[in-house]
Amino acid sequence: MKHVHVIGGGLAGAEASWHVAQAGIPVILHEMRPVRTTNAHQTSNLAELVCSNSFRSDDPEGNAVGLLHEEMRRCGSLILQTADKHRLPAGSALAVDRHGFSAAVQAALESHPKVTIQREEVAGLPPESWDSVIIATGPLTSPDLATAVRELTGQDSLAFFDAIAPIVNRESIDFDTAWFQSRYDKGDGADYINCPLSEVQYEAFIDALLAGEKTPFKDWEQDTPYFNGCLPIEVMAERGRRTLSFGPMKPVGLTNPHKPDQQPYAVVQLRQDNALGSLFNIVGFQTKLKHGEQTRIFRTIPGLENAEFARLGGIHRNTFINSPRLLDGVLRLNQRPSLRFAGQITGCEGYVESAAIGLLAGRFAAAERLGLSPPLPPENTALGSLLRHITGGAVTETFQPMNINFGLFPPLADHDSRGRLRGRNRKAALSQRALADLDLWVTQSTLESPVSA
Question: What is the rounded CA–CA span in Å between residue 230 and residue 304?
Answer without folding.
Answer: 23
